[in-house]
Amino acid sequence: MSEWGWNEKEKHEEMTDPLAWYLIGYDEDADSRPVAAVHFRFDIDADEEVLYWYWLFIIIIIITIF
Questions:
Q1: pTM assigned to the model
Q2: Which of the residues 10, 22, 56, 65 has the least number of beta carbons within 10 Å of its own beta carbon?
Q3: In a domain, 1, yes or no
């Protein structure tokens, strides 16, 4: 796998790192199911405080009324 390709071990370490934070948005009107999530972390890089935003996941809900 290339340097930028999927590496399951590295992804697991990244997602379970003590610095990892998750923010999950819930739909108040639909049984409180999750509709969005973001994975981020605060860190120090080159003596600067930084925010790394790893991913944003949005669930699109399509409602069809017959």
A1: 0.66
A2: 65
A3: no
